[in-house]
Write a structure and sequence with these properties.
Blueprint: E1 2-7, H1 17-31, E2 35-41, E3 53-55, H2 58-71, E4 74-78, H3 84-94, E5 98-103, H4 106-115, H5 124-127, E6 132-135, H6 141-149, E7 154-156, E8 175-180, H7 185-201, E9 207-210, E10 224-227, H8 235-240, E11 242-247, H9 257-264, E12 268-271, E13 288-289, H10 293-302, H11 305-322, H12 325-341
Parallel strand pairs: 1-2, 1-4, 2-3, 4-5, 5-6, 6-7, 8-9, 8-11, 9-10, 11-12, 12-13
């Protein structure tokens, strides 16, 4: 396919999957043989990078790329592109091919729409202009978007891992349990209950929390280390220094991107039981489910090391088989073909051929 990808401003020093996902997907699509024009809003003039074509603003986008967008087989707009409402309106009105909206934080989109306080946020009327909506939430959310928002076709599109950068490490184990990542309101309560609660219940244990640390708890147990978010090149080492990793959902029906990164590193994962997790990993065989801090403590203190190691290796095998960026490129192809045919939904195949 001839693909135009309207992406967010790519950060020079990306700090997470959320920062690097658009470029990774574009590169995976190129490896599949597609011609991908990645348009990046810069706001300033600079030389064109090999994989990215910059534009100044919407007027510049229209003047230079109208014909390319018009002729493209697929036009994909990332939810975090600057001026997303204006770009969406222009893109869906201009494109003759398949138009796709990629929402990597659907809970945020739904919450912003419910508040109706942000004039710059997307609206159902704008979503109706797209023929395919890629959302980060499973469960009832895709059908809700179709029924209540008028979305033509909503499909689940989970984070994919660049397997080259996440692998089991051979470093020294420093902590019994750790967590890293942004602390959404949903995660804060679970962290207070599970990680800090387990730390208080097991003073001899070693715990670590990295990331945004505000509003978690004023009284930190002494056996909980607090760190800044590790840089991208140290993510695998940070995860490998933990016996167990706490991987919490971003919101109901929505996995956090750190779930797949940690699993790719062979981490023994403790997860909250969000609906749809069973479709991603085998519960009890590839990840462990916790509902209380006592569940957390039982895993930390009672699971044999050999079983813990095998738990992580099975999770890693599942990621490599189904949840890499390469798999997401194939999935996008399948969704695009389905949308062009007007076919009903069916589970995507897993082949990379």
């Amino acid at each position: 396919m001839d693909i135009v990808f309207l992406g967010p401003a790519c950060r020079a020093h990306a700090g997470s999957w959320a920062d690097t996902a658009p470029m990774q997907l574009a590169q995976a699509l190129r490896r599949r043989g597609h011609a991908v024009l990645f348009l990046e809003h810069t706001g300033t003039r600079r030389e064109e990078a090999r994989a990215v074509t910059p534009y100044l603003d919407l007027a510049d986008l229209h003047a230079r790329f109208h014909s390319k967008v018009r002729r493209a087989d697929l036009v994909l707009v990332d939810a975090d592109v600057p001026q997303v409402t204006d770009v969406s309106r222009w893109g869906t009105n201009t494109a003759a091919g398949l138009t796709v909206f990629w929402d990597r934080d659907t809970p945020r989109t739904l919450a912003r729409h419910a508040l109706r306080e942000d004039p710059g946020c997307m609206t159902p009327e704008l979503f109706m202009g797209y023929r395919l909506y890629l959302c980060s939430s499973g469960g009832p959310v895709p059908r809700q978007l179709e029924r209540e928002w008028g979305v033509a076709r909503a499909r689940v599109f989970l984070p994919g891992v660049d397997a080259e950068h996440f692998a089991p490490g051979g470093g020294r184990t420093r902590w019994d349990l750790g967590h890293a990542g942004p602390l959404s309101p949903e995660r804060r309560g679970l962290l207070k209950q599970w990680l800090l609660g387990a730390a208080r219940g097991w003073p001899e244990g070693r715990f670590v929390l990295a990331g945004t640390l505000s509003a978690v708890d004023d009284a930190w147990p002494e056996n909980v280390a607090r760190l800044a978010p590790p840089p991208p090149q140290e993510h695998a080492g940070f995860i490998g220094a933990q016996r167990f990793t706490l991987a919490l959902s971003q919101a109901r029906h929505t996995p956090g991107p750190d779930l797949f990164e940690a699993a790719a590193c062979g981490a023994a994962l403790l997860c909250d039981p969000w609906p749809g997790l069973e479709d991603v990993f085998a519960l009890g065989d590839e990840v462990m489910i916790a509902r209380t801090d006592q569940d957390v403590l039982r895993c930390l203190r009672e699971m044999p090391e050999a079983d813990r190691h095998q738990l992580g290796m099975r999770a890693r095998a599942r990621v490599l088989a189904e949840h890499t960026v390469a798999h997401r490129a194939v999935q996008l192809e399948q969704y695009a073909n389905e949308a062009e045919r007007g076919a009903a939904w069916r589970a995507p195949a897993r082949s990379l051929s």
